Amino acid sequence: MRLKAAVIFCLLAGLAAGVAGFAQEGHPLTGLWYGDWGPNATQRNHLTIQMQWDGKSVMGIVNPGPDSFPLKVATLDSSKWTVHIEADGKDEKGSPAHFVADGKLENIGSYNRTITGNWNYGTTKGTFKLRRD
Amino acid sequence: MRHRAIIVCLAIVLALITLFVELHAQAPQPQGQGQQVQGQGQGQGQGQGQGQFGGRGRGGRGQPTGPSKPTPRWADGHPMLGALAGEKGIWGACCGSLSNAQTPYQPWAKALYDYRRNNEFEPHTRCKPSGGARQFVTPYGTEIVEMPELQKIVIFDIGGPHTFREIFLDGKPHPANLVPSYYGDSRGHWEGDTLVVETTGFNESFWMDRAGSPHTEKLRFTEKFTRTDFDTLRYEVTVDDPGAYTATWSNTFQMRWNGGQELFEYVCQDNNFAPVLLVGQEERVDRTSVIIP
Fold first, then answer.
1. pLDDT digits (tens, 9 = 90+) for B89-110
2. Chain B touched by A82 (CB under 8 Å)
3. Would you call A24 an interface residue with chain B, using a CB distance cutoff of 8 Å?
4. Is A23's CB within 8 Å of B123's CB?
5. DSSP A112
6. What residues in A contact B120, CB-CB < 8 Å?
7. Are the Cβ atoms of A27 and B218 closer than 8 angstroms?
8. A65-99, pLDDT tens digit by residue?
9. Is the Cβ of A50 closer than 8 Å to some Cβ of chain B?
10. Contacts of A25 in chain B (CB under 8 A)
């Protein structure tokens, strides 16, 4: 049983490393983004977003895994390099929440470009930071 | 006396005109011979210059010193794209910039292209292979080796990553479910004296030209190679990438033959000083990692 778990872990780790090691120079949002979000500097939550440009729109998934949810809207304004994201997910308590986030894409030419900005759902607000890996 | 002064004056004017015409004839011509955009009902004949480093390697563009010899041919009659048996030769660099003001970018692709013009941080400068036309912009030129018995052609880069691309001429289609790669999968066939190469299966990890024209995994690249005489290789490129452009578009260039030159050892990782010059405003180059991202 342990051996099986170890094999699965190694396979997943290898897959993640393969994805992370694959530089991407196409659409600036395409890729796997890691970071955190939270209402203040001390209350932070891990955040992973996978985004993909299909030629017309950006599709994506938040926190791939059992608690994942798709992006409802993801747009890039390339005149200002700003990003707008909307998604229907769950908050920390598990209640349905409509997240809206607006951020700025920075260090665009870099393999490890970043998006930083603000998010909100209802009256709850906070910041987020994502780094492309 | 007056007539003599007029004759001298006319002679000087004639000499200056002759000198001007001569100098103009010797001036290098722009490489891009005209870009056409398909799907928009119009073509733009516009010359286009070099990218920043296009054509300035050791392989250079080579200047013919006299009338070129005729196109060399194989026994079956089709043009020979490489060196004759027992001889050496490479093609000088070309096509620094595929695109121009008429290129039908999607908005994000144009913005990214403009960004790259000011913030050069090209994967090629980090020793990554570069597919599409970018393969011909490596310093020191490229060597084309035809292997009729294997039904394939190999194009070797000399500078940059010092790697190669295979073009299969066996008539088989692109494999299904291609894993995206730097050079993609190239399949060629002859149409008269022109080698037509279709390439697909590119990854997004490189720039397809020196200028930074963006592309996506949807890119399909059509190249037409025509050796019009011994010293000249006409190179026509058509870009079909609905992920980054609103229409297919093309451009045409020429490569010059550099006889007597051949591949030499070049290890990018050992000689990789270029990023210092090429990162532009993007100065945050991480030199702590053994693996170049």
1. 999 988 878 988 889 999 999 9
2. no
3. yes
4. yes
5. T
6. 109
7. no
8. 988 999 999 999 999 999 999 999 987 788 899 99
9. no
10. 123, 204-207, 214
Partners of B115 on chain A (C-beta within 8 Å) are 108-109
| A2-132: CATH topology | Lipocalin (2.40.128)
The CA-atom distances, in angstroms, between A28 and each of A115, B22, B134, B214 are: 11, 49, 20, 10
Burial B219-239 (b: 16+ CB within 10 A, else e): bbbbbbbbbebbbbbbbbbbb
Nearest CA in chain A to B207: A25
**Structure ipTM:** 0.76
Residue B19 pLDDT more than 80? no
Range with the poorest average pLDDT among A50-59, A100-109, B17-26, B249-258: B17-26
Note whether B111 contacts A78, CB cutoff 8 Å. yes
Domain locations in chain A as residue ranges? 2-132
Q: Where are the domains of chain B?
A: 30-62+76-274
